[in-house]
Predict the structure.
Amino acid sequence: MDPIELDTNGQEERLLNHQDNNIEIARDIDVTVEVQLEQPLQQDPVSHEFLSLVSLQVTINSKALAIFLVLFGHTLNSLNFSASIPVFGPIVYPLFRLATAGVGVFAFLSGYGLTKSEEKSGLDGFFVKRFSTVYIPFFLTVVCYNALFKNVFHSMQTFKNLLKMLVLFSDPTNPLDGTLWFIPFICGWYILFFIVFKIFKNRHVRVIVMFIIGIAGYVVFCYHNFGNWQMPGLYGNQMLQIPIGVLFATYEKSRFIQKYLKDKRVGLPVLFIHTAVFVFVYWKYIYLDPWGRNMKQQNFNNIVLTGMNILFGLWVPFFFTFFVKNANRVMDFIGNHSYEAYLIEGILLSSPFTQSQPENAIIFFITVFACAYAFKKVYQVVIKYFVLGANRVTEKVSGIYDALKTRFNTKAYSRL
């Protein structure tokens, strides 16, 4: 408490005037009490400050790195670096598995973002929001770009494949664009998330149920025979990322996570160990054998890939939280157009210019993000008119319902 300085020039007067002295003493007591009350109020926000585990800027940066790795991995497979560059190619080619790890980042951020969105605004408009931001861009991409690059309207079979692709869950072996497997995966999780959070109100129960679903999905996709379908491994190896995102979003205010974020003496050693474990797993079990041919059991291969996705999916946002919190124009542009780039890259990947020389990989990256930028401008207009139209339809339906309800009540009252 700061000392209260009294007016020394008036001390003699206060000694002569007992009444004035009492007034000054009472005033000093009031000021002292006010200072004592104000001091803890000024200190509390600092000592109890809450730090978000994944801020908006961290999300953008994480998405930028994740989509870069996805494009990088798909490009390595498409260009076949091992054959194109005899010396350098075999060194770089095993890194294509980082594309799967990049998808794990998107899955973790989705689970985290869904939970924080539910905490903020509940489940009101849940499917409308996801439909407008996820399915409409997907629909426009599949229809427009496949029509331009794959002539889907020139053959009845390709047109049927297009329709099946738009249904999402009808044909997982659709040959039009296998890179878009993540769209039905995440849409399925949207439905499961809504059901779980609608039924269960206790946050601990929600986390437990989400993990039960994730583990069950991992077992089904990784250990069940799906015939010719090549995607179950990709689905199974990402099944735990959404529940982990829900877990961290639910408990990020806990003392342990807040200590991890605030105290670098705790956070940096944990992040260092996290990095070392990921590098060890990737080098020993993936880089030296990226296709898992030397592994004695396929089950162990699934465990390794799932562990890699979990480690990397957590590592990327944690890294940006500690070291890169500021905005960057390049990262912002890539991160804000990551979804559009993901939708487009699979279609452009089959173009001739991406399969001739490794130098064309640079052209491929530039083309993807140029198309993503233009595409986002277009579908934002479509979404705007879709929302306006949906609101008008809702208003008309609501008006018709109110009119019918009023008429029914009037007739019922007249009969009485």
Residues 58-400 form one domain. Residues 360-415 form the longest helix (56 residues).
